[in-house]
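Most newcomers find our protein records easier to grasp once they have seen one. Nothing more is needed to start thinking about how sequence determines fold. Here is such a record, shown just as it appears in the course material:
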Amino acid sequence: MCARGAACPLRKRRQRGFCHHSKRCVVCDQHSCEKCALVRGDGDDVARIARHLGSEAFVVVDFDRTLCSTRAGADPSIIGKKKPPVADEALVELLASTKRGVVLTRNSHRDGIRQFLDDRHLGHVAVRSAKLEKTSKAAILKELLDAQDARFANRPIPGTHGVRAVYADDDVHELCEEGVAALARAGRVVRVLFAPGGVG
């Protein structure tokens, strides 16, 4: 149980973000636990985890406030009087080097996101919008993993149990949503609570 009790933002939503290994909360104590597959970190940490998972792993990143500095579903192609959106360079570099990169977002401006990626030579990265597809991020993540597991069923990847993913998002509620948490418990997803600059 989190020391903040009812004030814990995860408890209010009945989500699991409490590490039973260290008896600490991922939010209130700013805790990371590799056994829980829920760690806090920046783009470099995401890249480190992706390297550990291997070349067949998915690299899945949220868009707003993770890959891009946009907020609250804003269209990255519309600048107006605001500063142009900025990309997290470590995530851009990682996505450029992976063959299974996916932007998984609730942002509905798929064309603007696609242009943002193309401008950074990331045309190979898929864009999936839970809002446009009228589903959850967890359902999309499971679909991606199941499709790849089926593809590799007859030739398992040495040293692994199916295809895995690293999933970075700045919103702890997305990472602790039951469908995503179930994939983490099954050893299929490593969740990264994204914090630029890293928090260790």
In short: DSSP finds eight helices and eight strands in the chain. Strands lie at 18-19, 24-25, 38-41, 58-61, 101-105, 126-129, 165-169, 189-194.
